[in-house]
Amino acid sequence: MAPLPQSLLVLLFLLVSLAAALQRTFEIDYDGSCFRKDGKPFRYISGSIHYSRVPRFYWKDRLLKMKMAGLDAIQTYVPWNFHEPEPEKYQFTGDQDIEAFLQTANDLGLLVVLRAGPYICAEWDMGGLPAWLLERESIVLRSSDADYLAAVDKWMSVFLPKMKPFLYQNGGPIITVQVENEYGSYFTCDYNYLRYLENLFRQHLGDEVVLFTTDGAGIGLLKCGTLQGLYATVDFGPGTNVTAAFLSQRYSEPRGPLVNSEFYTGWLDHWGQRHSVVSTQAIVKTLNEMLAFGANVNMYMFIGGTNFGYWNGANSPYAPQPTSYDYDAPLSEAGDLTDKYFAIRDVIGKYKRIPEGPIPPTTPKYAYGQIALEKLNTVADLLNTLCQGGPIKSVYPLNFVQVKQYFGFVLYRTTLPKNYTVPTPLSTFLNGVRDRAYVTIDGVPQGVLERDKNLFLNITGKAGAALDLLVENLGRVNFGRYNNDFKGLVSNVTLGNDTLKNWLIFPLDIDSLVIHGLQNRYPALRRPSSTAPLAPAFYVGSFLIPSGIPDLPQDTFIRFPGWTKGQIWINGFNLGRYWPARGPQVTLFVPRHILTTSAPNNVTVLELESPLNGAGKYIVEFVDTPVLNATLGFDTESFKLLSKE
């Protein structure tokens, strides 16, 4: 018999693949208290990875390590503001290409639990909600507020259709989709809002997909966070009474699979607190108990990653999170294998077969050594370049949203209305600095105003002197009722009994300027001989990575000996905030893909206070070991360990 033509073989293959896809099902078996995948009982063991915190360059490495730990699935959040930073300006390429991330997971045989929002918490700026929603100041987020729902509807009509081909029923990896997040912890308790979201998700994804909610393991939290038609799951950490926690889920779901959607393998950090560490022994014990129950478990986090740029969130009372989101997870911020990873793998191996084959090794790190930087210029001296559209004039201060600056920095300038010969308190009405203001008079630093901490500053000055407040957004509140976290100067500024007026407001486009070569536009200034505190300024330098050394570039970490606080870019990539003066994080993770051996690597630092280490030198240092747990700068009275309600 003659062999079949190639075209016919391709057609037969496509028909077989289509038939297999048509048979794919993922559903809840209420009678059997389990999930059913393709008609068979199924229990998933999953781990959280946020594609927004891991460079695309490393997606496959991290996902493969998760698979080799024995995970069936991965769980990921979708930060709305990551994809729509400005209204209707959608970003789905590069590190924001969620479809490529899902395809990578699918190619590796990993299922996906998708946490689609619109609110996610995640210790991410504003819980993933875009700051531009606050342009209507009275908006009630996460409710049936008409303006809020209109924005959600528009976003989901763009995003959810992209997800539909990735549903398990359609041949993709997504087995379940979360609607909202921990809504029972929010004050609105708006069932109409949840119902609206359910209908919206069904409209775009269909009736077959399993939609679920997640709330803390308490009946009080489940009352407002759940809705008939959305399967209710719970979250809790090690040391919890597993039986009692799942009984709270049974309050909402008398039958169906037991699910812990966030089993905490570590915990988050805040600037000024100790680095959070959770013992492996405690995690292993509770994980084993849950798996023995037959429960479905997602470990939050399995790898935390990094809050690059300005993406970190904050908790209340106001405490921003650092750049690292290491989370003391089984895979470190840099994707390193840890003892916790192997201990968890051993537990999983008791309940299912671990994939055969090698585990991708920890990536090598390289200490490139010290790099000398030169002072370029102060922020004030670069205003015309940093704010090319010119300042906005206003009698009273405007907040960030009002000048359409959602992240980073805004400089506010006015003049002193009279002579102040004796120290006079500069302050804002009702704690109105959000979040940190660097104050200068005629370019001379006066000190710092900080939300909830340094509420006034005594200054002197002559009438007509320029008063500048460079205000930094340290990250918006991500959890609780105060997500509507306006930034900048959100109230009037007073100097003694005088209310300061007639402001020039400069929204600073620092990132664009750095990307287009800030260090090449201006000759470096000579270093000042004085060791007095300096005004906020840029410092630049470069270093070469020899092309003849095998396997370079490699990942590294950068530390800031003698520096205080600021922001750093390498080759235009915004690594994030550094704040070694407060801790606990001292080094920042530098992934190798942003480095090059073909040209000098440019380093740009915006130091907001003082870069001096006593020797008058400006040095940063690349090292091969991270420091996330320095004990300097802790304020135990002001910073209490925050936990979810």
Describe the protein's architecture and organization:
The protein contains 13 helices and 34 strands. α5 (146-163) packs parallel to α6 and α9 (280-292) runs parallel beside α10 (339-349). The model is unreliable at 524-531 and 634-645 (pLDDT under 50). The strands form eight sheets. An eight-stranded parallel β-barrel has the order 4-5-6-7-8-9-10-11, surrounded by five helices. Helices cover 20% and strands 26% of the residues. A hairpin with a 3-residue loop joins β12 (314-315) and β13 (319-320). It is of the alpha+beta class. The radius of gyration is 26 Å and the shape is globular.
Strand ordering within the main sheet? 4-5-6-7-8-9-10-11
Q: Could you describe the largest sheet, including whether it forms a barrel? A: 8 strands, parallel, barrel
Report the radius of gyration as a whole number of Å.
26 Å
Shape: globular
Q: Helicity level, as a percent range? A: 10-25%
Q: Uncertain segments of ≥5 residues (pLDDT<50)?
A: 524-531, 634-645
Strand-residue proportion: 25-35%
Outline the secondary-structure elements.
Layout (H helix, E strand, L loop, with lengths): L5 H17 L3 E4 L4 E4 L2 E3 L2 E5 L9 H10 L4 E5 L2 H4 L14 H10 L3 E5 L30 H18 L10 E5 L12 H15 L4 E7 L2 H7 L5 E5 L6 H11 L6 E6 L15 H13 L3 E8 L10 E2 L3 E2 L18 H11 L19 E4 L1 E5 L4 H4 L5 E3 L14 E7 L4 E9 L4 E2 L1 E6 L2 E7 L5 E6 L4 E7 L15 E2 L3 E3 L2 E2 L3 E5 L2 H6 L2 H4 L15 E7 L12 E4 L6 E5 L2 E6 L9 E3 L10 E7 L11 E5 L22
Parallel strand pairs: 4-5, 4-11, 5-6, 6-7, 7-8, 8-9, 9-10, 10-11
Antiparallel strand pairs: 1-2, 2-3, 12-13, 14-34, 15-28, 16-27, 17-23, 17-27, 18-22, 18-25, 19-24, 20-21, 20-23, 25-26, 28-33, 29-32, 29-34, 30-31, 30-33
Helix pairs in contact: 5-6, 9-10
